[in-house]
Amino acid sequence: MSSEQRVSKLHFPAAITDAQVALDPFIPGSPNSFTKLPDNIGKATWEVWYFDALSPSGDSAVTISFWRDAMTKEGFRAQVHALLPDGTTVGSDNPLLESTVASDSSSVTGTWCSPASPDGETPAQEASFKIRNDATSACLSFKLATVQGTLDLATSDKYQPPNLPDEKSASFTPGVYLVRSIPLASAAVDLTFSCGSSLSFTNGSGAHQRNWSSLPWPVLMDLNYYLAAEVGPYTIRLMHITSRLDRALPYRVNALLFRDNQLVLNVTGREHVSFIQPFVLFRPLFDGGSAGKEAAVRGTFPDMTNTGFLVDFVDPSEKRHWQFEVGHFKPWWNYPTGPPQLGTGNSGFLERLVGGLVSEQGQTEGFEGRGLGGQCTVPDMDKLTELMKLGALQQQQTKQGD
Q1: Mean pLDDT over all residues of the chain?
Q2: What CA–CA distance (Å, rounded) separates 354 from 240?
Q3: pLDDT at 381 over 90
Q4: Cis peptide leading into 56, omega within 30 of 0?
Q5: How many CB atoms lie within 10 A of CB 113?
Q6: Are 140 and 225 within one domain?
Q7: Do residues 166 and 26 both lie within one domain?
Q8: Do 371 and 383 fall into the same domain?
């Protein structure tokens, strides 16, 4: 792994450029924690450091995303979304004006911050992460108007993470890189929110992953789904995408299955059935599954009619098959990803899972568990362009009418 000392400090909006920006190259065998956009950010390029944590009881969770992109006009984002034990939700984007990523021989540190306002009414704000280069821990800290506190991830002494990927296996789908820097860790959370609520637990489960791309979401994909779950002795980490850049073979999956903290199956690449290689099948459910129609939960957007998914892990060489039914259990967040008439959005859920190993007689282990899931659909670029042209025409006609 590289121990090169580097510092990247970007200021918003000076770092945003209309020119094309090349991403720093992928580093094989590395967590790739240092920024891929060290000098400036193009209108289409983006990268994210993503962290999540699920409580031991499975009734609460938090997701945190540090973004370097040009998606907002207010600053670089340090997103925090929390689901509390009573079912209430807390979420904030936290745009900040400065993003600094620094590397040394032991770790990579990221700091998103804004200075205090000149009149002193708004105090300085800061959100930060520190990730060890050996991918054994991550420490996050928040001193924001919306949230204060910490999140810590640490791997166990006995845990053996999968080999860090080469560039081919890290290329999740055309145009997008995915590196599961810390796929399995113990999580400790201590957060207090401006609304007066708090979230605190230890011995939870958590993960950290990195994503980056030089292309905007409307070009990249139709549907994306993320799952982090604990089901009895099993831990699941799954990302599924429907690509727009490969219509012949659009379905991509990156999935890890652990049992008792030991890796059982690692699947990356196209979703397909194989008689030789391990594979994952991913199918939507629309009727509430085993929980029944009365318990069905859906996203709030027109294109999210499913109530969950059926996920099959298959290892042909060992003749082993695991099946897990994932059902949306508690709504978490819902926000649009395009104009209302296109019906696209991003929805988060606390998930209910049932399943396990399938026996030769066809019987499935009945382990039950919880997980956090995020489901996102994105409008097609052509439809967005058409609506923008229509909006500009209507605005012109309105001005002429005046």
Answers
A1: 92
A2: 19
A3: no
A4: no
A5: 19
A6: no
A7: yes
A8: yes
CA dihedral of residues 117, 70, 76, 338 (deg, nearest 10): 100
Q: Sign of dihedral through CA atoms 109, 263, 312, 286? A: negative
Domain that holds residue 158: 1-215
How many structural domains are present in the chain?
A: 2
**Torsion angle defined by CA atoms of residues 178, 181, 183 and 187, in that order, rounded to the nearest 10 degrees:** -130
- State whether 323 and 360 are in the same domain: yes
| Nearest-5° Cα angle at 195, 207 to 75 | 60
Domain boundary among 156, 187, 215: 215
Label residue 205 left, alpha or beta by phi (over 0 means left) and psi (-120 to 50 means alpha): beta
Alpha carbon of residue 257 to chain centroid: 17
Q: Quote the pLDDT of residue 121.
A: 82
| pLDDT tens digits, 46-84 | 999 999 999 999 999 999 999 999 999 999 999 999 999
pLDDT at position 120: 81
Q: What angle do CA 200, 206, 212 make, to 5 degrees?
A: 125
**C-alpha of 316 from chain center:** 29
Give the pairing of strands 137-143 and 125-132. antiparallel
What is the structure's pLDDT at 1?
Answer: 45
- Can you tell me the mean pLDDT for 289-302? 88
Same-domain check for residues 267 and 318: yes
Return the closest-CA partner of residue 101 out of 4, 1, 19.
Answer: 4
> What's the whole-model pTM score?
0.93
Residues 190 and 250 in one domain: no
d(CA 113, CA 125): 5
